[in-house]
Structure formats: C-alpha cells, structure tokens
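Table 4 source record.
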Amino acid sequence: MTTFKQIGVIGSGAMGRGIAQLFASAGVEVLLHDSRSEAIEQALMHNRESLERAAAKGKISADVLAATLERMRAAHTLQELAGCDLLIEAIVENLDAKQKLFRELEQLVSRDAVLASNTSSLSITLIASACEHPQRVAGFHFFNPVTLMKIVEVVRGERTAAQVIERLSALARHAGHFAAVTPDSPGFLVNHAGRAYGPEALRILAEGIATPAQIDRILRDCLGFRMGPFELFDLVGLDISHAVMESIHDQFYQDPRYTPSSLVPARLAAGLLGRKTGQGFYRYEEGRVVEDARVELPPVAINQPFWLDCRDAAMRDKIGAVLSSAGAVLEQGEQPGSNAICLVTPLGEDASSAIARRQLPVARSLALETFAGFDRRRVLMRHPGLDANVLAQARQALGADGVPVEVINDSPGFIAQRVLASIVNLGCEIVQRRIVDPATLDRAVQLALGYPHGPLGFGDEYGAMNIQQILQALHDCYQEPRYRLSPWLRRRVQLGLPLTTAEESA
C-alpha cells in the first residue's frame, strides 16, 4: 500500500485532474482544489466521464468505478487540505505563485507533510527556498495525459530529504508509473534529453536542407520515430516548445549547444503555433493535416551506368539489385567509367566533401544514404554542381522497387545521421554529468518521448564508433560546440564498451 493516506492536488487543469484520477484509481483518497470552484466541478466531471467510459469498455468493474469516484472529492478552500500528508501543486508556471502557495500550505499542514511541485521547468530548489522546511519539498513532474504516460520525474532539490524522494518514488510505482529520480538540473531529465530531436531538425530546416515534411518522413521511416519533430511541434504547440528551449538555454548560461532556433520568433509572432491555431509547420482543417498536392515526376530514360562507392558488400548487393530492377547497370571497377553516375555513401560528410575527397566528376556525382532505413525510405543528397538529368535518373532508378525516394540538399550527415548523433551525444552528456544512470535515462526517454530506443540504446544499435565518426565530421564542418564529442562516448569507443556501460559515482 502507499506511504500516503490523503493527497491534496492544487490546480484542476489537465495535469491536476489527471494526477487526481491517477491516485484515486490507485486507492488513495484525493482532494482536488482550485481557486475557481467551477473549475473543480468541471475537472471532477471530466474524470467521472473518463472512468465511466473505461467501465463501459470493461476495463474496470462497476465496483471499482464507484470506489474510485468516492475517493476523489472537491476541496473548495485550502483549509480543507489541512489533513493531507502529500500536497501536489499543478498551478501556473510562475515561481512567485508557486512560492506563495507553498508558504500558505506550510501554515496549514503538519510538519511531516510532503510538498511536491508538478513544474516542468522551474527549479525545485528555488521553489523550496521560500519554505521554512525545504527538506520536505520535491518535484513530482508528470506528463500529459497523466494516466497514460507511465512516467513521473521525482526531482531532488538541493535540500530535499532522501526519505521524501523514497516515499514519492514508492507512490509512483504503486500507481503503475516509472519513477525517474533526477537532481534539480535544467530541464530535469526528459526535457533536457529532448533538446536534440526538435532543435537539430530546426537547424536542418534553417539551413535549407529539406522541408518539414521531408524531415518528418525521413525520421519516421529511417529511424522509427512515431512522430516527426515538426508534427510534434504542431501537436505540443510551438510556443510551449520554444519556451522550454529558451528556459534550458538560459539555465545553462547560454551554452551554445542549447541555442534555440532563430526561425521560431517570427512564427510565434505570426500565430503559427500548430494544431491549436490551425496552422504551424502544417495546415489543419477540423484537426486534420491538409496534405499538399503530390507532384508526379515525369519518367526519364536511364541511359547512363552507375558506379558505387560503398565498402559494405551486403549493401552494395542490395543497391545493385534495385538498380538492376530499373534496368540500370552497376559498374564494378575501382574507378567510375567516363559516363557513369557516381554514388557516394558518406558517414558524417556532406556530398561535396565526399566527392572532392574521391576526386569524382562533380556534375555526375551525388550521395546516397545507406546508414539507416534504406529499405523503408531512400535519401539522395544533391549539391550545387549536380546535373539535373543525373539526379532524375538516380531518383527514378533507386525508387524502381517502390521504396519512396527523398532528395535533399547538401548536408554533413544527411538527416537521420545528424539527428541520431545529436540525440546520442546529448544522452552521453547527461549520464556524464551524473544526472541519471544509463538505464534510467533510456527508459525515461522511451516512456516520455516515445523514442524507439533510448539515447544510449540508439548509440549501441547503430554503433558508437559510427556515431563518433558522424559527430567528428559535423564538428569539422561547423566548428561549433554543438557537435563536440562527449567524453562518455569517446571513452567507450576507445575501450570497445557499450554506451550503456555504467560507472561508479565519485
């Protein structure tokens, strides 16, 4: 059974009502308070309807429904929360408002009561600094929708007692949630770990490498993400996502690795926030994306042979089979023939660099992504000197077996490579900082962000040495701290160890 007998939840918005339903369903008495009485009643009605739908579907029994509803009651004044041994605030994201509330609660509840904040971005230590007993204050950050997202960040402020963290973690597990214990660092764990996926996609967009739809399709099909970054921005709301990016950038004292995108302010000013405004990176009607008209490319005659720079024998055979199905010839020589279309397969490099390094004919050479997702979506990378007919032949030939082909502009690391490497590198930095252990990081990211692998698991899946090579090429190209190799990654590559290999704390 839980270590808490009665929970008070302050704030009856989406998060507050979700937290109330979660713990009432877990067998704990919950009092729900809001400054507006009508908001409490609306939240309780929302929860009732949600539970009744679950009962109608046979997910819970009538007895369980009745008991859960009985455990979830309104508290119209703060004074009614005096008997609670856990208070969870889910009010506006404002430091002064949270500090004021916690000071009031301290005067009402017993000295043993725990005060927890559902804040997603504010420092727990700062919130607790307004309290007489900061040792009983902790973060308890859920994700929306609370009952479905099976994770909560249990945030340890600088003065939070260990017993408080243990009790909150036990409560989370009792309710069926994974308790990701993290120190009071910028972005806690999940928002910090998420600073690679969307921000790197915005960087790719800003460089004119591909469209939002292309980036989304490539990352879904080639790496297995359930949603592309721009779909996600539109779902969450660009204003909310940007606020998180700015907050983390500020809290890390303008570390350039966390710099927000300069594309965003103008979009915010224009009201292009996503689904809630009807237009973001996509247009929406009645909540559904309005698809752009599909452009059918005219067929072309494939009248040039192909030459492939690829040392992977299995991949070479696979590419050869696709070209053969298109009626194209793949040359086998060490050097291309005088009329051959040259395909390079760089890791981390852009097409221009790979072509120049191999001293290939500029007009007849382009790059093909073979690192990830070749059987699901193919990516060709052009460069400024590429002949248009060569590109048309390559696009048609490499799509002959029905696999879609995307054409992007020159970029170090294509799209999948650089996004993946950024995710892995940031994950390595998080465990290097001892924010969490590798297992906690990977599980939290998978549960909260829906990634097919955690950051370190991604690195092990695609090869830590490959990730290192991509990052080094990105850093060589841009000369920016953004792509600086994490010591955690470098050391494990040097020793031939998985990235998930933990080490003792100092």
